């Protein structure tokens, strides 16, 4: 039902959507029923000539049935919602499939930065690739993310993944996702984080393994050429210092 408004691109999105549908159908059913009964009574017992209004306390057994029966039926519906919610919570928050890749996501006023392993596949090594506002990931790959904030509270949200996680300064919060289709989608900040909150948007690019490797090669060579440039500049500076000294 939700995919009509926004498509699903994660392995657990469908289960979250089903939970939303369950809540919508159950709450919607009782809402419509209650409104129908209300409007029927308004019409049926509307003011009539020479008929004084009755004062009903609702204490008689016959009258209390109007409250008690729907009340218990709604509690039964709640049980279904709670069971569904626990099932999805365990699937998304407590269990995770074996992790293929790890990335670091950093929120700050007002941008998202991403650090991911370079060709060695390990995070926090020299060949890490850092990007701002764009996250490149592989399709059908399980990612564990380490989410942090540099300053205030942010919230990392990828609507097509049905993923939303607060980023809290001083804490590293982990979670996971697995993209099931290729494409380019929105990343949003969903926690009021200051005047630039509205422009704190980023893009997630989900690509095939080949395309991802191409991107990685391009990014690594770019990084190493910048390093080389930095190296040469510092060497030049040193030579200049020597000459001057
Ligand atoms: Cu923010």
Features:
Immunoglobulin-like; 245 residues; 2 domains; binds copper (II) ion; single chain; five-stranded mixed sheet; 3 helices; alpha+beta
Give a written overview of the molecule.
This protein has 245 residues and is α+β, with helices and mostly antiparallel strands. The chain has helices at 13-44, 61-94, 209-244, and strands at 101-108, 111-116, 129-132, 134-138, 142-149, 154-158, 163-167, 173-178, 183-189, 202-207. Strand 6 (154-158) and strand 7 form a beta hairpin. Bound molecules: copper (II) ion (CU). The site of copper (II) ion has 7 residues, from loops.
- Assembly state of the chains shown: single chain
Instruction: Report the helical percentage.
Output: 40-55%
| Head-to-tail CA distance between termini | 73 Å
Could you state the CATH homologous superfamily of the largest domain? Cupredoxins -  blue copper proteins
Rg (C-alpha, Å): 28 Å
Strand order of the largest sheet: 3-2-1-5-8
Beta strands, count: 10
What is the N-to-C order of secondary-structure elements (H for helix, E for strand)? Answer: HHEEEEEEEEEEH
Strand content: 15-25%
